[in-house]
Design goal:
Helix content is 43%, strand content 22%. The protein contains 9 helices and 12 strands. It has a 10-stranded mixed β-sheet, sandwiched between helices. Helix 7 links the parallel strand 7 and strand 8. It is elongated, with a radius of gyration of 22 Å.
Length: 313
């Protein structure tokens, strides 16, 4: 058992985006004893055809599944070779079933600390910035998910609003050893909409404008204080950190801050909302995920203050 060691699940599919996930894993300074499992999910024979088929078709689909599994074995094997180095325990697995479901279940089964994915994969919606598998894994993963769009985590934007779920993200940046060499910019966004004045008398509009100005100034001051306080807390924990307060829509300003600074990674917490059929992350996190040019780490579930180490499997 090693107190700082981590368990990382990286899911690939042979795509260019998945290769970025492997590049990021290879570049990060993981604590000694960290275990990385490289997986690829292959749909079952029945799922490949998507319905009832005659016996001959089923045999053909099983043969196709076997071929795909052989190719997946080779893909994860090459990735493992790329990641091999002293102090890093790398193994591989080819999962069976719907990719998103299989990845989430594997993360639960192996007690992973972190899931790493590419930003998009194969499929009909490959033109989207965030692929369907990545989006579903993020919605359902029991642990933080890192969507890789680069190979560095040197410049980190931490989105901070003082909420309980943002605090989970901040704890991760403060406590996980992979961020020891990162420079963190704490971005806190004040979002005060313009007052609605139509239909009010001139005196009433003037009063609304005064109230809006006071509210906006109070919000600006609060977010300046939030950013400074969190930057101070991170510095006290040994991190290099600086505050940045912005005004506007949260997702847009987080993205603008990351772009302007040339950030490698955005870290943000988000709440989960129960929908009719799935657990959906908040709209700010989803907008950042879909539009960020850099990697994004989404933290929804509680994060341990220090990964507990690697247990034999």
């Amino acid at each position: 058992m090693m107190g700082d060691a981590m368990r990382v699940l990286v899911a690939i599919d042979g795509s260019e985006a998945a290769a970025q996930a492997i590049d990021l894993i290879a570049a990060v300074d993981w604590p000694s004893g960290t275990a990385v499992q490289v997986v690829e999910a292959v749909e079952t024979a029945a799922e490949l055809f998507g319905g009832p088929w005659p016996a001959l078709a089923l045999v053909q689909s099983e043969s196709l599944e076997a071929e795909i599994r052989l190719e997946a074995d080779a893909t994860v094997g090459r990735a493992a070779e790329r990641l091999a180095r002293p102090g890093l325990a790398v193994d591989t697995a080819v999962l069976r079933g719907r990719p998103a479901t299989a990845i989430v279940e594997e993360a639960r089964t192996t007690n992973a600390n972190l899931v790493v994915l590419g930003s998009r994969g194969h499929g009909t919606i490959e033109t989207m910035l965030l692929g369907s598998v990545s989006a579903e894994v993020i919605d359902h993963s029991p642990v933080p998910v890192l969507v890789a769009r680069g190979s560095r985590i040197e410049r980190v934007v931490l989105a901070w609003d003082g909420s309980s779920y943002a605090a989970r993200a901040a704890d991760l940046v403060r406590d996980w050893p992979i961020f020891a060499g990162s420079t963190v910019r704490v971005v806190s966004v004040s979002d005060v909409g313009l007052p609605w004045q139509a239909g009010f008398a001139e005196t009433e509009s003037a009063e609304l404008a005064r109230i809006y100005a006071e509210t906006a100034e109070a919000s600006r001051a609060r977010h300046v204080g939030l950013a400074r306080e969190m930057a101070d807390r991170l510095r006290a924990a040994g991190r290099s950190a600086e505050p940045e307060a912005r005004e506007g829509k949260a997702a847009s300003e987080i993205l603008a801050a990351a772009d302007a600074w040339g950030a490698d990674l955005v870290v943000l917490g988000t709440h989960g909302r129960t929908g009719l059929a799935r657990l959906l992350i908040g709209s700010v996190a989803r907008n950042v995920l879909h539009h960020a040019a850099c990697s994004v780490l989404v933290v929804r579930e509680p994060v341990p203050r220090a990964p507990t180490g690697v247990e034999a499997r």
